[in-house]
Specification:
Oligomer: single chain
Shape: elongated
Order of helices and strands: HHHEEEHHHEEEEEHEEEHHHE
Largest sheet: 4 strands, antiparallel
Structural class: alpha+beta
Distance between the termini: 34 Å
Radius of gyration: 29 Å
Amino acid sequence: MLSDISRLFDPLGLLGPLIITAKMFLQKLWILRIYWDDEVPLHLNREWEKFSSELSQLKNVNIDRHVLCSKVLKVDLIGIGDASKNAYGFAVYTRSWSRSGVFPSTIQQLDIWWNGPSFFSSSSWPNFNDDPGVSDDEYLLEKGLKALESLYDDNSSIEIEPDVGSTSDLFDEDWIASNTASESESSDHAYTCGSTGTAVVIDGNRIYIANVGNTRCVLSRGRQAVRLSVDHTPSNAEEYSRITAAGATVSETGLINNSLSVSRAFGNFQYKSSDLPTSILSAEPYVRTIDIQPDDEFLVIASNGVWNCFHDYEVVEFVHRKLERNRELHGYCHDMCEHLIYRTRYMEGVGTGNLTVMIIQLNVNADH
């Protein structure tokens, strides 16, 4: 890419719009913190290939450098400047008038300066929860941690069996208890607001995962993405059956009563009855256990704002590219959020959901 850009020689500035388009690719790489030896993301690589394939058409373009109409009455010197979040520039040209007072069809081009892309760095952190249920998340953080702590405080002598055993039961009991407590302690707020969640407990060489809703946990095993959680969505056949049996509808776009995009969540008691398994919305978690393997590298736990924009394998590759340069994970979650904000807002013109990311490194030896 850099080699191709350096070959675009335009001393007169007549190809300014094309040159700046090429340089804006460097801007995108800079914002995404892609270094010289890093692999270019697939979506940018495709965009560049399309652009570079059209460069050969330049040889068919002829531009008259000096054009004046006959019997000139006057010549105007015109300058235009403009700027955006992507680039800034300034152009100067002349315009000649004929005796008939009619603008000529061509103009004399004096010079054009396209000064380059607007290199900026965003230092803002994303809002981890911009929906009205933010206090539900704070409540669940407090109650959920206590519930997980009680797993060992109250069962310190438990022998964990390969089939998850009582640990799975405690996840179910504690999470549903947290959901029920939320109803009793903050019923007014929790009636219309809710939250999803994923919890991971690492006990020696074993990992326990529990999730409710569409937050997700993905394992990198031998640089391959392995999903350890389940997205609870209304379009899932089992979830769909429970929802419709409880008297609700699921739209073609996968929304419960044209409103809710998840089939399991904390709070949102307007969709729940006292009998949780038969409610429109459930708080019963999906629970899974795995043993850590020698080629397991890290876990990524993130909210749906990440997974709506990234495939599982893209997240795994993103972290691996960072680890290849620096084994320390510090700053990687921030980098991923910045990458997503730029990709959705500035490249695709859309927004993203709440962004919460955790990366847990596995099989870390004493050297790291």
